[in-house]
Description:
Elements: E1 7-8, E2 14-17, E3 24-27, H1 41-53, H2 73-86
The site of zinc ion has 8 residues, from loops.
Amino acid sequence: MAAEKTDRSADGIRRIICPRCGRVIEYARVSDIATFPFCSARCRLVDLDKWFEGDYRISADPAGDGLPGTPGEHKQARERGTKREKS
Length: 87
Ligand SMILES: [Zn+2]
């Protein structure tokens, strides 16, 4: 996917580029960044939102079923609502 540049300098600081906004993030350990690999919670949310919007839809699933145990209750609720509107 996005170019994930990692380079380690003498003081152990690494840099990556946020795949969402392109900002450079400096860190010593991945655990230092709660939102890794994004620079902020906002960027991570934007990316998650893209998934929910269907930009990155993995499988064509027009019926909206076949996704048991999806960890996104509000997404399921939304699909259910959409289905009801259609029929
Ligand atoms: Zn970002």
